[in-house]
Structures are given as C-alpha cells and as structure tokens.
Amino acid sequence: MSTLLNKKYKSFKKYFTIAMAVIMGLIHVYNYTVASMPSIKFYAYHLMLGLVMVFLFYPTSKKNPEKFIYLDWIFIMLTLATGLYVILDFENYVQIIQMSVPSLQIFWLGLIVLVLVLEASRRVLGLILPAIAVGTILYALLGADLPGLLGHRGYSFQRIVITIFSDLGVYGVPVGVSASNVFLFLFFTAFLSASGADKIFQDLAISLAGKKRGGPAKMAVAASAFFGSISGSAVANVVSTGSFTIPLMKRQGYKRRFAGAVEAVASTGGQIMPPIMGAAAFILSDITGIPYATVCIAALLPALMYYICLFKMVDLESVKGNHKGISSDELPDFKETVKKGMKLFVPIAVLLGLLLVVQTTPMTAAIYATFATIICGFIDKYERMTFRSVIDGFVGGAKTSTQVVTACATSGIVVGMFALTGLGLKFSDFIIGLGGSNILFSLILAMFICIILGMGLPTTAAYIICATAIAPALIKVGVAPLAAHLFLLYYASISAITPPVAVASYAAAGIAEEDSLKVGMSAVRIGITGFILPYAFVLNTDYLHFGFDITTLMTWLSAVVVCYCVAISVQGYIEKKVSLIERSLFFVAACLAITPNFVLSIIGIGMFVVLYGKRKLEYKKEITSKQTAVA
Questions:
Q1: Contact 292, 285 (CB under 8 A)
Q2: How many CA atoms lie within 13 A of 60 on its CB side?
Q3: Residue 43, exposed/middle/buried by CB under 10 A (0-12, 13-18, 19+)?
Q4: Which residues in the chain land under pLDDT 70?
Q5: What single DSSP character describes residue 233?
C-alpha cells in the first residue's frame, strides 16, 4: 500500500471508528432515556456495533495489521448487513424465528452471525471460549449417538443455527446484560478516564498510603481498590495501576514476584468490589432477578474482607523486609488532590445516590453519572475536558466493550446449546448425584469446576456457564440463591490469579519482569482470603446481610478478626516473627470467628484479642526499654 493511500486509509478508518463509537454510545443512551426499543432489536444494535468495533480494533493479523485489511472489511460489511436485517426487518425476523420451519434466508444469516461471533471471540479472547462454543454445537448435532445420561434426541444443523440466531442464543440474556448494564458502566468509566479522574484516583491512593511502612505496596492495594471498583476488569486494572505501582515497589526493595502478586491480587478484587463490580455481577443480577443495589450491598463486606486481609498481608511483608514508606517530597499533596477531585467525587456521588438512595435502575444511574462527569470535566479549572476528550470517551467506551460483547455473545451460543439439549440440567443432576445432599462437597466440586473454566475464560463467560450449569445444583442442595451465585462469581473472578493460566498474574508478571508462575503462586498465597470467603458467606449468610443491628455489628467485627488472623497465620509475623504454635492458634481463632455460631465466634474474637494484644504489649515494652537504654 503506497504511503499516500495508507495515509488516506488510516484517516478514513479513524473517522469511521469515531462515527461507529459515537453511534454506539448514543443508541444506548437513547434507549434508556428517550424511547425503549424492543429488546431483541436493541441487542441487535449492540452486537452489530460491538462486532464492528472488534474488527476495527483487532485486525486479522496482529503482526502485520495491513496484510488482511480486505478480510477485516468483509467481516465489517457482513456484520452490518446481518445486524441491519434484524433491525430494519424486525417484525418479519421475529415471525420467522417463531415459526416451526424457518426460511433458508434466516438460516444463512444465522450461519454468518455464528461465524462472525466465533471469529470476533478468537481475535479478542483467544481460542478457548470459541472452542467450547463449537464443542456445545457438536454436542447438539451428534448427541443422539451418545450413550447414557449425555445422550439426547439430536438436532439438525439448521435447528441449531436458528437457535443461535434467536433470543436463546446471541440475542439472549448474556448479550442483553452486556447491552444494558455493562456497556453503560464501561461508558461511564471511559469518560472518567477521558476526564483525567483516573489520575486523581492514583494520586489519592499515593497520598493516603504512601508514607506508611510498605507504602508503595499499600498504595498499590488502595489504587487498585479505588480504580477496580469502577473498572471491574482485573487485567485492565493491572495494566493501568500496575504500570506505576510495580516499578515503585521494586525500587523500594520488594521482590519482583511479590510486587507483581500484590498488584494482581489487588486488581482482581476490583471485579467483586462495589459500587461497580465486574460485568458478571450485572449478569448475576439479571439471572437471579435480584436488584443490582442489593447485590452490591451483599457483596460489600466480603469485598472489604478481601482487601483488609490483603492490606494486612502487605503490612506484615513490610515488617519482614523492613520496607519503609515513601518520602513526603515524592508524594502528591493530599489537599490539592482533593481540590482537583470534583470531577471524580461528584459523578461517584451521583452514581451511588441514584443507585442506593433513589434506587433507580443501574442504567439510569450510569447515564446520569456520565453526564455529571462531562459537566464537571468542562467546568474543571485544573484540567478542563475538551471536545476531543468527549470523543476519546466514546471511543474508549466502545473499545473497552469489545471484550464483554464477544464474551457474552459467545457465551450466548453455549447457553443456547445448553437450553436446546438440556445439558445444563444434566450437569446439575450430575453434581447433585456426585455430591449427594452434602453441601460442602457440592461446593468443593463447584469451586474446582469454576476455577478450571475461569483459567481459560474471561470472568464473565466463566460465570455465565457456571451459573447455567452449576447454580441450580447448589440451590437444590440448600444454598441460598444469592449466596450460590456470588460463590460462583468469586471463583470465576479469583481464577484470574490461579495458576497455571492466571491472566491477571501474567499481566503483572510482564510489568514486574518476573516468571509468571512465580507471580501466580505468590498471588495465591497473599490472596488466600479470596479462596476462603465464598465458603464463609455460603455457610454463614450473615456476611451478606447488612442492617443496623447486633448481627451486623458482630459479623463485621468477626470479619476484621478473621482477616487479621489469616494474614498473621500466612505471614508468621506481627511486629516480630511469631512461633508456629501462635500461628496455629491464630488460624484456630479465624476458624472460630468465621462460624455462624455466636458463642464460637465470641471465643474466636477473644482468642485474637488475647494473642494479638499480648504480642503488641511485648513489642511496646521492648521499644520502651530500648528508648530508656538509649536515654
């Protein structure tokens, strides 16, 4: 391609991308403010524009993006053609889909959409999720030849394609949640970033935690908790905050594996941290019918426990390695940062106020929070937003959505095949049969399945598949619906740090310049609370309860005790090294405090107070005697 032609092509592609991103954003805002479209038509818009963005941002050849540009544009044209068919001829499409003998035209359009979704998923997410989708299609096609429980009556390829091209497949619940809640929150996050609010997040974390012992590592935890609570993506969180926290930790003397592990664990927690959890949390709300605000409130204490324990792990690591804080002249001024924080604090306040006080839908809250971000950005005297920043917000939101759109669309294929063949029900019956009526054994089975799936899949896709196949089994053995789904969400999320395939650990390892397996193993050790918490809130649902009563007070008190006890048991330090017996006693205290039994919980809290208080007094006396000796 000649230089002049290449320049013209890049210019055309740039403006085409901006146009598609702006249209995508405005359609979603229009649907939830001006007039609502029929759900399938709206999902068709969302999937069409999402796939167009995939083929624009993810070329066929990563090494040589210009090599197959014609193929990329063929995919774009096919995406627009199939999407516009559903949108413009919607009534006819719905009638044909509902007929028992669909038309040949619908079959071919459905086949094209199937290929487009699988190819988009391959480009964005890799081979594993498309391979699972193809596997479920083959199961639907060949299941009549399978023996025993796995066998079914078998379905024609035409029936399979039509199912995929319907509201049971790519226009089903997963894409619906992506089109509604998830996209608008990604849109909001993109505008926060475009306004410069993400930098304020970082500066707040640095100024709050930087001076303390182990300041850089604590800063990484605080920054990732702040940023992760609005981004909801582990890898995005690692890349954004880890780019400055990991090098800083290394300069302060932390081992590379520990620096990478801290960032990976802290970033993974963003997917379970309210107010904006990962995309899977919105799908959880939609599947269970539980309001998103209720899900956030239930998830708050477990998420805080996750970060409290991680913070204490980091603190004790700082004691072991004698890591100091950052000098004051290297820290941003806290008061100045707060002054600049209007464009951060006002949108977050609008979001939380509408979600928790006014109790609007999440979509409405996200839209008004985005408007607040733009208004605050334009009147901000420190770093004013420009028209270019607004365009960056549209493009950033559209680009970020590509991962969720492809994951949800491909998961829609899997869910559609589960529904068609009854595989989800068979899977659920298998777990019940294997676990019997034993809740604990069923939970362990569910945990392993969820972690294994999550190792190769995005959290959203892993959760959708597990929610379809496993959640009914857990509910049947007596687990409360919200607890069952949060259990699966946690393990789908925590798989991001679980070797051998740990995407958050891999991303952190790249920045830390350390072996990914070493970072992954360290992440499992310091993120151990994430593996314990799901059992805690399933077996003791008080951890999902919030109210102004004695139960909540005792639960929150025991939660802090559990976090400290686990951190001390793993690290083996308080202010100095503790004995193996003491570590064991702290572990016992954690086990007692976490139980739903009030008396045992009190005993556990009492054990912690005695053990921890004794160590603190001894250390205080030691310091006093040293000061006296010096004097």
A1: yes
A2: 12
A3: buried
A4: 1-2, 5, 100-101, 209-211, 228-233, 325-330, 435-436, 456, 629-631
A5: -
H-state helical runs in 422-547:
423-435, 439-456, 459-469, 471-476, 481-494, 503-512, 516-526, 529-539
The answer to pTM > 0.90 is no
* Tokens, residue 415: 């869910």
CA distance 325 to 329: 12
Distance from CA of residue 78 to its chain's centroid?
A: 31
Buried b / exposed e over 611-622, threshold 16 CB at 10 Å, is bbeebeeeeeee
- Provide the 3-class DSSP secondary structure of residue 252: coil
Q: How far apart are CA 454 and CA 472, in angstroms?
A: 19
- Tokens of residue 2, six digits: 């000649």
From residue 466, how far is each of 123, 269, 581, 606 by CA, in Å? 23, 19, 40, 39
The tokens for 129 are 């999720």
Residue 210, pLDDT score = 64
In this structure, what DSSP letter does residue 573 have?
A: B
By C-alpha distance, which of 143, 545, 190 is closest to 389? 190
pLDDT of res. 359: 82
DSSP output for 148-208: GGG------HHHHHHHHTSTTTTTSHHHHHIIIIIHHHHHHHHHHHHHTHHHHHHHHHHHH
Exposure class string for 255-292: b at 16+ Cβ within 10 A, else e = bbbbbbbbbbbbbbbbbbbbbbbbbbbbbbbbbbeeeb
Q: How many residues does the chain have?
A: 631
Tokens 């005792």, located at residue: 554
Strand partners, 573: 577
DSSP 582-618: HHHHHHHHHHHHTSS-HHHHHHHHHHHHHHHHHHHHH
How far from the centroid of its chain's Cα atoms is residue 505's Cα?
Answer: 14
CB 305 within 8 A of CB 168: no
What integer pLDDT is reported at residue 562 of this predicted model? 94
Residue 526: name the closest of 324, 306, 372 by CA: 306
Predicted local distance difference test score (pLDDT) of residue 71: 92
Q: What was the pLDDT predicted at 238? A: 81
- How many whole angstroms separate alpha carbon 115 and alpha carbon 71? 13
- Residue from 273, 272, 270, 248 nearest 259 by CA: 248
